[in-house]
Design a protein that fits this description.
InterPro entries: MFS_trans_sf. This protein is mainly alpha-helical. The protein has 18 helices and 2 strands.
Amino acid sequence: MPRPDLTLTPAGPALAPRYRAHPTRPVGLTAQPRNPYLRLFAVPGARAFTVGSMVARLPVGMFGISAVIMVAARYDSYALAGAVTATALGAGALTGPWIARLIDRYGQARVAVPASVHAVLGRLLLVLLVHERAPAWTLFLVTALTATLPNTGGMSRARWAHLLRGDPDALHTASAFEQAGDELCFMLGPVLAALVCSAFFPEAGTLVAAVLHLGGILLFTGRRATEPPVAPRTSDGSPLRAPGMAPLLAVFLATGAVFGSLEVVALAFVDGPVAGPVLALQAAGSCAAGLLYGRVRRTARLHTCLAAMTVLMSMPLLAATTGSLLALAAGLLVAGMATAPTMVTGMALVQRLTPESQLNEGMTLAVTALLAGVSAGAAAGGWAADHSPFPAFGFLLPTAAALLALALCAATGVGRRA
């Protein structure tokens, strides 16, 4: 604000603006960018914490594939590698809501930093054990006891909810951007992990992921001006008790089965070095759709998004019946376009149903349900890939899971309740 000048009037000295106001613009208002994302990152501190959040989230897509590569290389057993990775997912599903509850009670920086340090030290210990070919039980023990990675995406969404309170359009854009960022991290993470492990040594992927995560968390939590204050607790119970929350988590569980089954079935169908890039097209479609979805002013209803997902998930099935790899790649790209709008809408419902003092815990419960569905869908997809009566049979599973999610949403009316 320019300092006002004194000017003489018949009544004596008075304040007068130094600069003449624009004739068509109210005094004190400046032109806002038309692009909603440019307006979003005009918020003070938004760029810095977003960079930290993305850097911290990228390793989430790296840890799993890095663990598989290094364990399989040292122990010559993909079964052991898969079991260790599954242990990490299961332990994370148990500890995630507990860590999120601590974040809600004591703040992001006070909890996320020590939780990340503990998790990174555990990953480094796992690298040492694998390198020395320690007994297999030690791998499971270390993996289970150090699964304390905080939900960085949930903390970032909580910051946007705090900064954009009272502006639902901007919050919708922020949610869409966060979902697109998730898709980008899960698309690039496995590729980066495989590249680093192959270029250097099997443990290199885990080491790089550990450094990136800890550096990102320190950058993210270091932006204290954007950290939401600890809200007074209005409920001592779990967010699961909030009306409509349990049915919504059931929808997330079925939605996760869509993603898990599609990934395994597509990998089994392609079965070659191009499987990863082909599968990455689904995440690319979701990322692009998320950014486009963030530009609209209104959020679609959850059952509308799930209906679109059910229809679009039939595209890989139709493409697989042709036997063409290019057709399957196009089908996966189209199918992915329903992912981000569905997740943005679902997470928006979680934020509405969860008390403000339990927001991180509520979003972590949603992610936990989603990951549980991914695990169940991956198991079902693996069974279908081994026992399919015809090559495209497995692609029935994602469509069936999407239809189940739509039926649960319609039967419970969870979107209308929120």
